[in-house]
Each structure stands twice: as structure tokens, then as C-alpha cells.
Amino acid sequence: MELVLQTASYILVVLLFLCLYRAVVGPSVPDRVAAINLVGTKTVTMLVFVALATDQLFFFDIALVYALISFLMTVGMAKYFETGNLG
Amino acid sequence: MLQSAMDAAAVVFVTAGVFFFIVSTVGLLRLPDVYTRLHATSKADTLGAGLCLIGAILHLGWTLTSIKLLLVVVFIWVTSPTAAHLIGKAAYRARVRPACGEFAIFDVREEEDS
Predict the structure, then answer these.
(1) Which residue range forms the structural domain that includes residue A34?
(2) Which residue from B94, B78, B104, B97 is spatially nearest to B35, judged by alpha carbons?
(3) Could you report the predicted ipTM of this complex, rounded to two decimals?
(4) Which of A15, A33, A61 sits opposite B25 (nearest CB)?
(5) What is the pLDDT of residues B14-68, one digit of tens each?
(6) Domain tally, chain A
(7) A38 in contact with B at a CB cutoff of 8 Å?
(8) A2 touches chain B (CB under 8 A)
(9) Are the beta carbons of B38 and B87 closer than 8 angstroms?
């Protein structure tokens, strides 16, 4: 099981850097926001895998808070792109 | 016996989740415009992360921390379609054009104002 978790984490790191390509190059702003949203989801999954592989279960709290902050970032970016302010 | 069966199921779930992550990253890199890319990334959020975290829950078994993980899964399932919808709505209202076909200009804001 630990081998599977480690391999999955390595694959997710590679995929995360591939997503950063779209976040840097992406022609429009919603492309970048979607790419960073996917990076946040992969980070949550990787946090859970690292917590299970190293047996440090308090990382689950960090994963929950990271998911919340990632969602807030996406909502804020979408609203700022749509209306031009955050009011 | 039960623990090894649950571990085998966890391996299957984690592998399927990583597969969906790979597919959606290929979609994010290869698809032509922002709407189709949003279609690819929302699959990764619901299926990829959901299957990976359900595999983690099966590996943990019935403990209090697995209920916390179930909370993370439910939170991701609620918020990520909402986030994809918000990004798509913002792109549509900012007139981001799709790669092919007509862009039907239907101003939702004027509709709301009148």
C-alpha cells in the first residue's frame, strides 16, 4: 500500500507541473484559473496520500483547510474577472 | 482477511483516481478553448479526487479520521462543480470566444437589469 501511495504521489507531482504549463501559457484568464483550481485539487489529494504514507494523520485537517482556501480563491478570481472588483 | 480485501479495493480506487487525473491533465493541455478545458478539469475534481480519497478511506477503515476524510470528499464534491460553473460563467460574460462555432451573445446582465 505504501508503494502505491508513493507512486501515486510522484505521478501527481509530474501532473501538477504539467498543469503549471497551462497556468503560465494559457491564452485567457479563465484558463489560468481552471489550471490553478486543478493544482489545488491535486495538492489536496497529495496531502492525503502523504499523510497516509508517513502515518501523520493531522495532515487531513490541512487538506480540508486547503480545499476550502482553494475554493475561496476560485470564487474570488471568477468574481474579479467578471465584474472588475470584489465588492 | 477483511483488511487485505479492503487494501486491495483501496489500491484499485487509488489507481482509478490517478487515471482520471492523468486523463484530465491531458485534456487541460490538449483541448482547444476554455469551455472544453473546464469540462476536462471538473472531471478530475469529482472523479479523480473522489476515487483517490475513497481509496484512502477504505485503507483507513472505520475510524474518526476516516469520517474527517469523508467530509473532505463531500466538500470537494459540492464545491468543485460550483467553481467550474463560476469560471465558465465569468468566461462567458467576459466574451471569451470558443474555438469554433457561433458565439451567441446573450447578455445576462442586461436581462437581469431590465
Answers:
(1) 2-83
(2) B97
(3) 0.90
(4) A15
(5) 999 999 999 999 999 999 989 999 999 998 888 999 999 999 999 988 888 889 8
(6) 1
(7) yes
(8) no
(9) yes
